[in-house]
Design a protein that fits this description.
Elements lengths: L1 H7 L2 E5 L4 E5 L48 E4 L13 E5 L2 E4 L3 E7 L13 H19 L4 E8 L11 E7 L4 H17 L3 H12 L3 E4 L3 E4 L10 E5 L11 H22 L5 E6 L14 E5 L15 H4 L3 E2 L3 H10 L10
Parallel strand pairs: 2-14
Antiparallel strand pairs: 1-2, 3-6, 4-5, 6-8, 7-8, 7-12, 9-10, 10-11, 11-13, 12-13
Helix pairs in contact: 2-5
This protein binds 5,6-dihydrouridine-5'-monophosphate and zinc ion (ZN).
Length: 347
Amino acid sequence: MQNKIFSETSHRRFNPLTGEWVLVSPHRTKRPWQGKVEASHDFSRPAYDAGCYLCPGNERAGGNINPDYEKTFVFRNDFSALMDIRETRDTELNPFIKYGSVSGECRVICFSPRHDLTIAEMSVVEITNVIDAWMEQSEELGRKYKWVQIFENKGEVMGCSNPHPHGQIWASSFLPNEPAKENKNQLDYLVKNDSVLLKDYLDYDIKEQSRIVVENQNWIVLVPFWATWPFETILLPRKHIARITEMDETDKSSLAEILQKITCKYDNLFNVSFPYTMGWHGAPYNGEQMKHWQLHAHFYPPLLRSATIKKFMVGYEMLSEAQRDITPEQAAMRLRELPTVHYSNKS
Ligand code: H2U
Ligand code: ZN
C-alpha cells in the first residue's frame, strides 16, 4: 500500500530537517525513462590557463598574485559578501524594520592547481588534500565565528564563474536560515527521542535500502526520502560526528573515496561534468552541547532529464512548495546502477 502511494500517487513528503513538505508526483513519470544520454558537452580544458584567476602564478582581480601552489590554495575572496567587523547588533525599530549588523569572512579554496580537473577526476589523495583544507579552515574560522559554510558551486548553470576546481567558505557571526532550521529540528528530535535524528534516519534507510546510492566503511550517500531536487543526495557518516573538524584519519580517507564515487556517478548520469551545489552542515561553533547535530553534506544538482534539461524551482515551487516527478527511490536506483569509473576514463 505504502509503496503503491510512493510510486504511483501524488503525495507529500515531510523533511524532518527543515520542517518543510515537498509534493511528489510519481504518476507523471509512468512512461519508461526516455532521457537521452547525450555525448559529452564538455570542452576539454588545458591543465593551465593563463587567463584563469585561480591557476597558480596568475593575477586575480585587484592585483594579488596566486602562489605556485601544488595541492590546495585558500585566499580571502576579493569580493567578500561579509565583512570582519568588531561588534554586531540587532535592532528592531518596529515590527517592519528589524535588522542586524553582521560580521564574517569569505574565502575561496582552489581544490587543485590543475585547471582541467574536477573532484570526480581527482585522485583519492588529492581529494584528501581538499578535506584537510576544509577541516583546517573550519577549525580556524570556527574559533571566531558561529557558522562556517563550506560549499562548492559547480557548473555554469549554477552560476559558477570559473571551471577551475574550487569552492568557497563563508564564515559568519550569525546562524543563517538553513542551518538554523536544521539546528532547531535536530534539537527537538533529540529532546523528544533521546537520539540523533540523522543517525536514526540512516539506520532506517539502511534497512529500507531503496534510497541508498553508494556506501563504504564510514560513509553512506543516499537520496533522502524528502529530497526536492531530482538527483539530490545527502552524504552521512555511519558514526556520530557533530563537526567536520572531528573526523579521524579513516573518516577522512574513506570520505575522499566516497566523494570520488558519488561525483563520478553524477558525471556518468548524463555523460557531462555534472553541475551542483554541494556543502557541509555540522554543529555551529558556539561552544554549546551539540549532541543533536550529525555532520552531513548535501548535494543539490539541478539537472533533470539530460545534460541540458534542468529542473526549475519556479511557479508552484516559488509560490506554494517544492515539487518533484521522479521519486527519490527511482533517482537512487538510477544513481546506484551507474559505474564509479568516470566516463572520460573508460578504455
Ligand atoms: P564562483 O565561481 O562559485 O562564483 O566562485 C568564485 C569566487 O571567486 C567568487 O565569489 C571570487 C568571486 O568573488 N573571486 C575572487 O576572489 N578574485 C578574483 O580575482 C575573481 C573571483
Ligand atoms: Zn585555472
